[in-house]
Design a protein that fits this description.
Length: about 220
């Protein structure tokens, strides 16, 4: 399931992030790529020790944690610190799959990948995130501040940037619920119970919807 979420970061947060990014040093993106991904990765990434880098990453993670749509879709247990990527004219990221486990001594399973677009789509041409699905390729290019959540196990790529510059934050999520069909069912049920709470706040059906969600999460969650 691919989920697009508007307004994860507001304009003020975006301006602050972009100001810090413009003044920061970047390194070859292949430094953080897996064995096979190194062969097809052609971008730049914010230097880990760059001034303001930690602040940008903390802002992104905090915004995701506070976003109801993201919480509903991902049921996140762990959100990795994001990478800040820059694609200049001619750069791209070829077809690849994200590593199943990430981190140092304490590995984190990657269930979901997240791309948060930091600059406006009018700033560049190309640069679409392209995810392979059973129905074919799905292209995603969102407004600044919007995010797309997609399966880490799906083959995906970033199309070449043909004009301007694409800036995005990319992170990975270990969900409390590993199975994607169960996550989707819980997301649907969460929408239903929230709507019932609005229109039938005192009904038994609303209580049962909340009970069912809690018990399914209790049954399926991994801690």
């Amino acid at each position: 399931m691919i989920v697009c979420i508007d307004g994860v970061l507001d304009r003020s947060q975006l301006n602050s992030a972009l100001e810090a990014i413009r003044a920061a040093d970047f390194v070859d993106g292949r430094e953080t790529a897996g064995f096979r991904a190194k062969l097809v990765k052609n971008n730049l990434q914010l230097k880990k020790q760059a001034p303001g880098a930690e602040g940008i990453k903390e802002t992104v993670v905090k915004a995701l944690k506070g976003n109801k749509e993201f919480q509903r879709a991902a049921i996140p247990r762990i959100i990795q610190k994001p990478l800040i990527s820059r694609y200049q004219e001619g750069m791209n990221y070829g077809l690849h799959v994200d590593d199943a486990l990430m981190g140092g001594d304490h590995k984190v399973r990657t269930d979901l990948s997240v791309t948060l677009f930091l600059n406006d789509p009018s700033d560049y041409q190309g640069g679409e995130l392209i995810v392979e699905t059973a129905a074919g390729e799905e292209e995603v290019k969102l407004p600044a501040g919007a995010a797309v959540v997609y399966p880490s196990g799906a083959l995906h790529r970033v199309a070449p940037v043909t004009r301007g510059e694409r800036v995005a934050a990319v992170t990975w999520v270990e969900s409390y619920v590993r199975d994607p069909l169960r996550r989707e069912a819980l997301a649907d049920l969460d929408l239903i119970r929230c709507r019932l709470a609005e229109v039938l706040p005192d009904s038994r059906e609303t209580d049962l919807a909340f009970k069912t969600y809690a018990n399914l999460l209790r049954m399926w969650a991994e801690t």
